[in-house]
Task: structure prediction
Amino acid sequence: MNNLWKYIIIATSVVLAAIVLSTAYTQRYRSMTGTITVTGLGETEFTSDLIVIEGRVEVENYDAAEGYNNLEASRNRVVDFLVSKGVHREAISFDMPYTNELSTSVYEDGNYMGSRFAGYELSQSFSIESTDVDAVESAARALPSLIGEGIDITVYNPMYYYSKLESVKLDLLAAAAADARERALQIATNSGAALGNLAMSRAGVFQITAATGDEEFSAGGSFNLSSREKKARVTVRAEYKIKPIKE
Result:
């Protein structure tokens, strides 16, 4: 009789242990969660609508007053030339004139004896900023022809901007985030899981490069100014929770 009760107790214990283990496994399965980390991409191309071109005119003269008059004449000629090429006068601005005293080295029998005053160099920087990109491009390309008139002028490469860039950035972030979610959804579905809530999202830096070519990206972000046609891209790294479809 005692042996019978012993067997009953053992059997009962085994059954209870099985129930506990089964319940624990079921609860673990139901509460089991994980995450999917994906990277989405937003990319678009656009045309710059603002151009900025900088330059400088210079004169040299032994007399400062006469040199300034020459500089003013050169400046006025630059303005007249640009306006004649279709550039609005309001788009042209000049910085304050800069005066530098010149000197020449004096040697006697091959020995340096010091320096001697040689006159003045006067210069004035200017810039052209306009949304009429075609007209400014054309006029700027022709500016160096003034050298033939005796004007000492330097023209730098144009810089191109886009006035609606902030709107482009917002659209790209939205596109990159949507792309990240779509990727996460595909992974979850193909893995037999359901996509849960967003746990974390972080945007990368904006890369604005020439629309064509193989311009390299920068870890801190790039901002191309030399190309009129540009490409902008940004990535969004997102982490989504997942859960089993069958609970």
